[in-house]
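Hey, I'm writing a tutorial for new members on how sequence and structure tokens pair up, and I'd like a real worked example in the thread rather than a made-up one. If someone can provide the structure for the chain below, I'll link this post from the tutorial.
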Amino acid sequence: MNKSELIKTMAEENSLSADEATTVVNTFFDCVRKALLSEQRVEIRGLGSFKIKQYAGYAGRNPKTGEMVSVAPKKLPFFRAGKELKEFVNS
């Protein structure tokens, strides 16, 4: 399911217009993004949690040339599935 399919499904199942469903989905995504940017953890009970993980820089190797490359420190979003989602998928 992609974003447009989510909007369509939300509109159909909740008697919303496509514009209203788009607003709801976009507002939700914006709230999650803003929370992650301020390094807050986002937990959605029954689904899972999102957080930002920080990774230190390291010396890597270019696989094509074998040349040593310095990889800068970075932050990446991380999702951990909740217990209910794991149980649902494995039932």
